[in-house]
Amino acid sequence: MHKIHELSTILADQIAAGEVVERPASVVKELVENSIDAQSTQIDINIEDAGLKKVEIIDDGIGINHDDVEIAFKRHATSKINNQRDLFKVQSLGFRGEALPSIASVSDVHLKTSTGDEGTQIHIKGGEIKEIKPAEARRGTSICVEDLFFNTPARLKYMKTIKTELAKISDIVDRLAIGHPDIAFSLVHNQREILRTSGRDQLQQVIGDIYGAKNLKRIIKIENADNDFKISGFVSLPELTRASRNYVTITLNGRYVKNYALFKAITDGYGSKLMVGRYPIAVLNLELDPVLTDVNVHPTKQTVRISKEDQLCNLVAKTIYDTIYQENLIPEVMTRDRAVQPRYTTEQLQMQINQYSKTREEPKSEPLVNDYIEPVLQPQAEEEEETPKEDIKTSDIAAIYISNKAQLNDEDVQSFAHRYEQPVTPFGETEVTDDEVSNNDDQPRFPKLLYIGQLHGTYLIAESDDGMYIVDQHAAQERINYERLRTEIGEVSNDQQSLLVPLVLDYPNRDALIIQEKLGMLQEVGLNVEPFGKNSFVVKQHPTWIEEGNEEETIREMIDWVINHKNISVASFRAQTAIMMSCKQAIKANHHLDRKQAVHLLDELATVNNPFNCPHGRPVLVSFSNTDMEKMFKRIQDPHTNDNFM
User: Fold this and answer.
1) Alpha-carbon 353 to chain mean position
2) Which CATH architecture fits 203-326?
3) In a 3-state reduction of DSSP, which class is residue 33?
4) Distance between CA 509 and CA 47 in Å, rounded?
5) What is the pTM for the complete model shown?
6) Tens digit of pLDDT for each residue in 139-158?
7) 475 FRET partner, CA 20 to 30 A, in 36, 284, 493, 643?
8) How far apart are the C-alpha atoms of 221 and 215, rounded to whole Å?
9) Residue 153 burial by CB count (10 A; 0-12/13-18/19+): exposed, middle or buried?
10) What number of other Cβ atoms are within 10 A of residue 76's Cβ?
């Protein structure tokens, strides 16, 4: 008996389905690409229960001949290529002949098609043909896929929520619509329209349909070509950015592709005009000879190899750079986002200087944050529980050099063992927990700092009995703000500030679906976001802790964070919000403070639970002990004696 045998056709198709049909979005992608290859001018996509119950694609393409319908569901049956030479100059989106048999092997499929002369209808379930018969002669094809993965229930375990799966479907339809603005697309889910494009071959209009018409004023057209490549599309001005890379779409000869080198070329074209962690809205269409590409790399055909890739990337980066360089990048005051308005003035530092006298009071020993409030940063708190308590005063440790045995009796050496009775963490490497600081009664909690001056509008110079301190003014106020804001955000009071003009935010379908799923989480931090139309949301009021003038930027960043971190807890979201707001409200570098402001900042720093690190973990201050200073200026000198030579 043979141990090696040939797999049945149905089993082979189900195995292939594991590569081609990962989720409902894969079904939509493969079927819509077939409709595009069929020269359709209108494609309607009807979805039920995010495609798990039903996916229906209706087009007005050239249809399938009656004699070819049954063959179309056989593995590796295609009309796109005929020989090996055709494989290296593929111009269609599909060519492998795997999609239809793979989909039919794990679902219940009904297909109606006609070339305009005669129509055919076929029913296939689990890879087996149930019925084939004549049908109406409407030109085009309609295919209905029901009960996806009915015979492979293990695949259903890996499906996400309805809204998550729908977001993936919406995302792939958006990409296909961008790549083919000459085709009218419509996407309907449970009888609710999600997307509709006109098919007028106006790419800018399609971008507006997906990303919001309001953003069209801040995108610019790019166009360039050389002997091998032709590029076109639209990119946003540097003032219009997003926190996710999902707003960048690259199409190659009409095919949506993922290519890191091209993505990097787009961002390189902006140079230093993009903020760290921000990405543009970009649509890049590439046209090149199919011979220069290899799309037969992955079954999904989204990963491609490009010959002369470096040349193409240089062309993309240079085109974007030259185009943006010619633009006036100064946003108009009335149309710009509030995020780019001047935010910090001396009067807006929130220091309340008038409440303090010129004579400094002793720093308060009790923290401002209520100890009974549950810590916001829950994940971090769990890690801190496992961290042994350590001596936080390490800044006055100086190097000790011993050249002879007699020096072992020196005062510095004798105090060495006492200093290291407890493990010491190098200053700034790990954040000292608030509880560690509060419970350490043996050491002074924080030195009494006397203000001396300011360096480069960024650092405060201060002194105490044990030496000199340099304080990063931005990190200091960031820590102060964080401990105040995490309490305010954690309490979620009813204190709300109404907006004179409600803020309307537009998002693409994919992001809108995620936001709808996370509305409750946004409410947990006091942000009431309400649906307002198909893919729009309105904010009529906001928590009072959001700084005036930065409402839209702050709210957008909070929503972006929710979109990009789907599996998060309310506690971690509150913590992230507090960190973001504390940074925005803190004074910046190159901001000069007068003496009262600087003294007040040092006073406030002395009262917080953890004055040693900002919320991001960077050190707030560093110190030079008296011993350090004396050794730097050679006031402590080596006696140049050695008992070994005596």
Assistant:
1) 39
2) 2-Layer Sandwich (3.30)
3) helix
4) 14
5) 0.62
6) 999 999 999 988 888 778 78
7) 493
8) 13
9) exposed
10) 9
Structure tokens, 24: 């409902």
Give all strands of the β-sheet with 255-257 in edge-to-edge order: 219-225, 229-236, 282-288, 248-252, 255-257
Nearest residue to 396 (alpha-carbon basis) of 635, 605, 622: 622
Burial 398-428 (b: 16+ CB within 10 A, else e): beeeeeeeebeeeeeeeeeeeeeeeeeeebb
Same fold, 9-196 and 203-326: no
Considering the segment(s) 9-196 as one domain, its CATH architecture is 2-Layer Sandwich (3.30)
SS3 612: coil
Q: Can you read off the two tokens belonging to residue 18?
A: 């594991």
**Cα-based distances in Å from 122 to 229, 307, 333:** 43, 42, 61
CA distances from 314 to 40, 187, 236, 262 (A): 35, 36, 19, 9
Cα–Cα–Cα angle for 364, 369, 371, rounded to 5 degrees: 105
- Residue type (1 letter), 544: T
pLDDT value of residue 513: 86
What is the Cα gyration radius of the chain? 32
Q: Considering the domain 450-625 in this protein, what is its CATH number?
A: 3.30.1370.100
Sequence-distant (≥ 6) Cβ neighbours of residue 352 within 8 angstroms: 600
195 in Cβ contact with 185 (< 8 Å): yes
**pLDDT by residue (tens digit) across 567-615?**
666 666 667 777 766 776 677 667 788 888 888 888 888 888 778 777 7
Q: What is the 3-state secondary structure (H, E, C) of 138-178?
A: CCEEEEEEECCCCCCHHHHCCCCCHHHHHHHHHHHHHHHHH
Angstrom CA distances, 300 to 50, 66, 147, stand at: 20, 28, 22
Tokens of 142: 């309609």
- For the chain, which ranges sit under pLDDT 70? 1-2, 5, 10-19, 80-82, 86-89, 95-97, 296-302, 328-445, 488-495, 545, 566-574, 580-581, 584-585, 588-589, 616-617, 636-646
DSSP 375: P
Tell me what pLDDT residue 417 has.
Answer: 45
pLDDT score recorded for residue 290: 84
Position 125 scores a pLDDT of 92
Helix (H, G, I), strand (E, B) or coil at 15: helix
CA contacts within 13 A on the Cβ side of 515: 26
Return the number of other C-beta atoms located less than 10 Å from residue 18's C-beta.
13
For residue 402, what is the DSSP state?
A: -
Pairing of strands 279-280, 459-464: unpaired
DSSP 51-76: GTSEEEEEE-S----GGGHHHHTSTT
Q: Name the burial class of residue 372, with classes exposed (0-12), middle (13-18) and buried (19+) by CB atoms within 10 angstroms of its CB.
A: exposed
pLDDT of residue 55: 95
What's the token pair of residue 525? 């931090």
Domain boundaries defined on the chain: 9-196, 203-326, 450-625
pLDDT at res. 483 = 78
CA distance 6 to 531: 55
As a whole number of angstroms, the distance between CA 283 and CA 249 comes to: 5
- Joined together, the tokens standing for residue 574 give 């509150």
> Which three-class secondary structure state does DSSP give residue 279?
strand
Q: Do 608 and 480 contact (CB within 8 A), yes or no? A: yes
